[in-house]
Automatic annotation (TrEMBL):
Keywords: Metal-binding
Cited InterPro entries: Fumarylacetoacetase-like_C, Fumarylacetoacetase_C_sf, Rv2993c-like_N
Keyword NAD: no
Protein name per Swiss-Prot or TrEMBL: DUF2437 domain-containing protein
MF-aspect GO terms: acetylpyruvate hydrolase activity; isomerase activity; metal ion binding
KW Membrane (keyword) present: no
Fumarylacetoacetase-like C-terminal domain span: 55-251
Domain Rv2993c-like N-terminal: 1-50
An annotated GO BP: carboxylic acid metabolic process
Length: 254
């Protein structure tokens, strides 16, 4: 099932995507879904970020080849950092390049986990019980600021630096799916989630040992090798096999 968040006629709703239509649901997508009876052509709605999380927890250096391209050894334990909820945007929205503050902004295509219920200290064997589904993500990063600051909050935290979408796929087996990133149609990243150093159940267990996860919270699972700079005017697309495409254009920050 594909759960989307969408806007039509100045109204925002969650809905279930079925082929070329979307069926609106009442309230939120957590728990049993109740349909409103309204169905719209997908072409007539505007897809939004599929969820507005209370927090986005990201995993650094979770592909060995990416760790090495960043000049580091693959870590023995997951490396956690966070992105503010204000960084989240949806498909088709613009990534704002902060030219006055950064001279290099990179794409980082990722598979994102969406949490489905409040949880803490979840055993890895039960991680699937607390996951609503999966979506595409782009962990946009001001690389020069990341290197300069020594920690990642500023570099990762700009408004628009966390595109999510196009929807949440609830029936995906995430253990071995293709992940690609294209810039202006050219493939820049090409990997499979089977290459993750720390698998998704282990990530959910690790993060939930540290903090309580709320429904809608997002875990970014890491980016593979091939990260690189974006320029104003670029179009970047993250594709996760079995989920879909997340496309955003880069514009100058006003």
């Amino acid at each position: 099932m594909r759960i989307a968040r969408f806007a039509i006629d100045e109204s925002v709703s969650f809905g279930v995507v079925e082929e070329n239509t979307i069926a609106a649901v009442r309230a939120h997508p957590f728990g049993e879904l109740t349909f409103t009876g309204h169905r719209f052509p997908l072409a007539d709605v505007r897809l939004l970020a599929p969820i507005l999380p209370s927090k986005v927890i990201a995993i650094g250096k979770n592909y060995a080849d990416h760790a090495r391209e960043m000049g580091a050894e693959p870590p023995a334990e997951p490396v956690l950092f966070s992105k503010p909820s204000t960084a989240v945007i949806g498909p088709g929205e613009a990534v704002a390049y902060p030219e006055k503050l950064s001279e290099r902004v990179d794409y980082e295509g990722e598979l994102a986990v969406v949490i489905g219920r409040l949880c803490r200290e979840v055993p890895a064997a039960r991680a699937a019980d607390v996951i609503l589904g999966y979506t595409c993500a782009n962990d946009v990063t001001a690389r020069d600021l990341q290197k300069r600051d020594g920690q990642w909050t500023r570099a990762k935290g700009f408004d628009t630096f966390c595109p999510l979408g196009p929807w949440i796929e609830t029936e995906l087996d995430p253990s071995d799916v293709a992940l690609t990133t294209r810039v202006n149609g050219e493939t820049r990243q090409d990997a499979r989630t089977s290459q993750l150093l720390h698998a998704i159940p282990d990530l959910v267990a690790y993060v939930s040992q540290v903090m309580t996860l709320l429904p809608g919270d997002v875990i970014l699972t890491g980016t593979p090798a091939g990260v690189g700079p974006l320029e104003i005017g670029d179009e970047v697309t993250v594709t996760v096999e079995g989920v879909g495409d997340l496309t955003n254009r880069v514009v100058a920050r006003e």
